[in-house]
Design a protein that fits this description.
Its main location: other. By secondary structure, the chain is α+β, with helices and mostly antiparallel strands. About 55% of the residues lie in helices and about 10% in strands. It binds flavin-adenine dinucleotide. The site of flavin-adenine dinucleotide has 20 residues, from strand 1, strand 4 and helix 14.
């Protein structure tokens, strides 16, 4: 049956899921000015495709649909909205993201007014971001590149030194970048002051590489081959003293190092500048999930397979329970991720705009937590959604023109870029443990012991989970109180047990903290994931309340809210069903577990008739589906027409 959701609500949900006010103008511009050239990329020779995308990027930067560099701090929502609405080509999106979100953002956050004037005056002076080295990726504190102050010449000198320190994977560096923000160890008067960032001119205004800079292509990748990733070496490259991004530390002309900010905080502030890009990667994962599900669901509503013996009609594949069970939970998860991402961006904007230093530090921590979990969770979701969609489309899903295999190759790297997902979850758990330890330290000995001893029992009781252990009716299972409390309990419990394990190892057994943490790494990541799922569902819950509050009297919205509510329950219950923790820790018993399984199937059935309506709410430009299974206007037959009379035939010359 067709979706019962009224079309009147279309713009309302779309304005939450994709709130960028200029999206249609931007989408139209891309459709009119770039699309035809973008379509040529997959068939182009390797190097040509990189120069081609460089040309497209410059055309984009010349237009009036791109944000300015000032928007990065003044209207971050505009930059988010822009990045989320390009849709068309991964290599181009990543290039723009490196230029705006990494290169320019670093200068904005770590530099001074002079830096902004000198390096951000012209949008088409494309930038790169040079952090990763061949032997050092995640462990940024150990970068080997040195940037040494020469007191005689009054300049900094950059050296790669050992070949292991070559900068690696640097986006925009091979075909586009004039400048780069380079991260390395600042050495002043024989003292290593730790990691700092500098702007380095890689090429002059004519595109010629500066003396002492060497760049080489990193080679063919699993996808995004039109993105120009280069390896870079610096051989005694001199840069002016003023090129140190000196918001938190500076070197005077006579070579004296000065910083008001302690080492660890300074490092955190430098790395904090990465958060904007990290949120952008999460948005990228979400876009992939939306496109993939749109293709699979639209195809599933069209395609028939096997015949209904009663009616003699073909059965649409969406009407198979199994097809629904494979796709609808991913749609619910994508909605949950969208609402969460909405929240994460708000926290970020608050952080950027906060003037008070103490509050800003707290918001930086919050932003770090939120950006890290959203990036990890949503980039993984993108991959899962593409994989399932690909399979759900059968052989057609494997056809390149239908985009799913191409999307897979593009989305793959998002789980590694801007922080390896597992490491991000570990860093989140580390922050949570820090807060927990602080809370314990603030108590006296007796209070602390009682707190620890009663924590498990009181948590369960406090959250009403014990009382409802035998309850398995639909209303209870789908309720906020059950879902949110269960997820909250898991997060708290994992935190408490992890803290206890680490305490025993480090304090009682005198084990080195790094080793102890390593031995508990699986537990650490489980805590990160638990926190992530809890935060997502909380954001979803808040969004539902907001929608209800605003539209409670509108009968049309009531229907939509019911569907959103079902999706909330579906995703929440799936989180519970998929983790043995809840059975192992007696949050649910086997009877309740089976009831949840049945409830999930019921919710999937409820939501399925609305699935096309829900996809349309993402407000994606239809041109990205042209020529694919996701097209609204072309059938599978239209996409595979009978050959014309004058079309070349598949004749072969076997010489007989
Ligand atoms: C297409 C592409 C574009 C890129 N663009 C840029 C760019 O523009 N600028 C830039 O600076 N970088 C860029 N990068 C680099 C990217 O950010 C790094 O690849 C990423 O940070 C991971 O670093 P690494 O590859 O050195 O992996 P490593 O840090 O070596 O990690 C490898 C694996 O080891 C494991 N591991 C590592 N540490 C731990 C630990 N503590 N505990 C448990 N397991 C661990 C994890 O499984 C991890 O995935 C790009 C990479 C690619 C592929």
């Amino acid at each position: 049956p067709p979706s019962k959701c009224p079309p009147a609500t279309k713009s309302f949900l779309a304005s939450i899921l994709n709130p960028y006010p200029e999206k249609h103008r931007l989408q139209q511009w891309v459709g009119g000015h770039l699309l035809e050239d973008i379509k040529k990329i997959p068939e182009m020779p390797y190097m040509e495709s990189k120069h081609h995308v460089d040309m497209l990027m410059r055309r984009f930067l010349d237009s009036d649909v791109v944000p300015s560099f000032d928007d990065l701090l003044e209207n971050p929502e505009k930059v988010f909205g822009f990045m989320e609405n390009i849709w068309a080509e991964g290599s181009l999106s990543v290039k723009l993201s490196v230029h705006y979100n990494l290169y320019a953002m670093m200068i904005k956050l770590l530099g001074n007014e002079d830096h902004k004037k000198r390096f951000l005056g012209n949008l088409k002076d494309i930038g790169a971001f040079l952090m990763t080295e061949l032997y050092t990726g995640t462990d940024v504190k150990s970068l080997g590149t040195t940037i040494t102050y020469d007191n005689n010449k009054k300049v900094f000198v950059i050296n790669t030194g050992d070949n292991k320190n070559q900068k690696y994977w640097i986006g925009n560096s091979l075909c586009s970048a004039r400048y780069g923000v380079v991260f390395g160890s600042l050495v002043c008067g024989n003292r290593n002051q730790g990691i700092h960032a500098f702007v380095v001119e890689l090429r002059d205004a004519n595109g010629k590489l500066k003396s002492g800079v060497f760049i080489r292509d990193c080679g063919r990748k699993g996808g995004l081959n039109a993105l120009d990733n280069g390896a870079i070496w610096f051989d005694s490259v001199e840069i002016p003293r003023e090129n140190l991004l000196n918001k938190y530390a500076d070197v005077s002309e006579d070579g004296a190092y000065h910083s008001d900010v302690k080492f660890n905080r300074r490092f955190a502030l430098h790395i904090g500048a990465l958060l904007f890009a990290r949120i952008g990667v999460g948005s990228g994962g979400m876009s992939y999930s939306k496109v993939a599900l749109a293709i699979a669901l639209r195809f599933s509503h069209q395609r028939t397979q096997f015949v209904n013996p009663k009616t003699g009609e073909g059965i649409r594949i969406i009407d198979y329970d199994l097809q629904q069970y494979r796709l609808i939970p991913l749609l619910a998860e994508t909605y949950a991720a969208s609402f969460f991402q909405h929240y994460v961006k708000r926290v970020y904007i608050q952080y950027v705009k906060e003037e008070n230093e103490e509050k800003k530090d707290e918001l930086l921590k919050q932003t770090h937590l939120m950006a890290s979990i959203s990036k990890a969770q949503i980039s993984w979701l993108g991959l899962r959604a593409i994989d399932e969609s690909r399979e759900c489309c059968g052989g057609q899903g494997y056809k390149f023109a239908n985009r799913l295999v191409h999307l897979r190759s593009e989305a793959d790297i998002l789980v590694t870029l801007d922080g390896v997902n597992h490491i991000l979850l570990m860093s989140v758990a580390q922050i949570l443990l820090g807060e927990y330890t602080k809370e314990l330290q603030d108590r006296n000995f007796i209070s602390r012991s009682m707190y620890l001893a009663w924590e498990k029992a009181s948590d369960l009781l406090r959250q009403g989970l014990t009382m409802s252990y035998y309850q398995s009716d639909s209303a209870h299972l789908c309720s906020d109180s059950f879902i949110i409390n269960a997820l909250d309990f898991r997060k708290e419990r994992l935190k408490h047990t992890l803290a206890t394990r680490l305490y025993n190892r480090i304090v009682k057994n005198k084990q080195a903290p790094f080793l102890a943490f390593n031995e508990c790494a699986v537990h650490v990541v489980a805590l990160g994931k638990a926190y992530s799922e809890f935060s997502t569902m909380k954001a979803y819950q808040k969004m539902l309340l907001k929608i209800k509050r605003i539209h409670k009297r509108d009968p049309d919205y009531k229907k939509v809210i019911r569907v959103l509510r079902d999706m909330f329950s579906l995703h929440g219950l799936n989180c519970i069903l998929k983790d043995n923790f809840f059975l192992e820790n007696s949050v649910i018993g086997s009877r309740k577990s089976k009831a949840i399984r049945r409830e999930v199937l019921r919710l999937v059935k409820n939501i399925t008739p609305h699935s096309l309506f829900l996809i349309d709410q993402f407000d994606m430009p239809e041109y990205i589906f042209d020529g694919t299974l996701g097209s609204k206007t072309e059938s599978l037959e239209d996409l595979n027409p009978r050959p014309d009379e004058d079309e070349p035939r598949a004749d072969l010359d076997w010489g007989q």
